[in-house]
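PROTEIN DATA CARD
Card holder: HTH araC/xylS-type domain-containing protein
Chain length: 282
Origin: Paraburkholderia acidicola
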Amino acid sequence: MPRMVEFYRVHGVEIGRVCAQDGASYPRHTHAEYVVSANLSGSEKIWVDGRNFDATSETVTVYNPHAVQSSTFNHREGGTDFISLYIEPSIIASIAMENSWLSRPTGPDFRQGVFNNNELYRSVLALYRTARDESDTDFEAALIGLVAALLMNGHRTIDMEKKYPDSERLKTVVEFMKSDLAAQMNLAALAEVGGVSKFHLIRWFKSVVGMPPAKYHMQLRLIEARRRLRDGQHVQDVAFALGFYDQSHFINAFRKIMGVSPLVFAAPLYSGHAGKPRIRVL
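Structure generated from the sequence above:
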């Protein structure tokens, strides 16, 4: 399993440094944020929204919010070391608007995949270093530079109808899922909301979203868990509120996606204990 060895939360941006060994992998999952990762060493095979990529040393991987993704790390190269940034869409949109790069107050749809882009790679490293060195002024400048590099790498305005046929019906089903994340998912109820049969609902999710409804429902629960943990809610309370009545189930599901336990993710303090990630939260 990939292991997060450093984790910083600075002004709403999360920065993690992760080490992966022995053919470790991330299962299919999604994030509500933009995820931008820079491979420092090693390589991985990446699947994102139905496309396959190879990420090697000094390449950058870009994922848009809610893109379904998975990866497997190449054990033959002795391990992979990478930095991942998790950036809220509102932060990207705000920076782009303030600098007159975009005219709409919504996050763009960045060109997605793996890129051998030296400017983008250096921008990820610069943001990581300013978080590590606790330089707030430099952090803001590095974040603006990163957004500029992402836009220069390619973007477009999101047209949900073209990107996802029947997107309104899909949105209705997803909103129904979100309305009670603690409840057990009911295929019949979801199919009725979407106006399709259970068979077509399952096929629809696999084709459009990239995973079955039950697995996507789990991802929505984990996204909400991360939001509540950032807000300072207790791990046990979050697990219970989202229907994880077995806390070990919650911890294992969370760790598979984030490479760190919910308790460490929520921790607001530096941890200097051996084997623990370094944490900084502002």
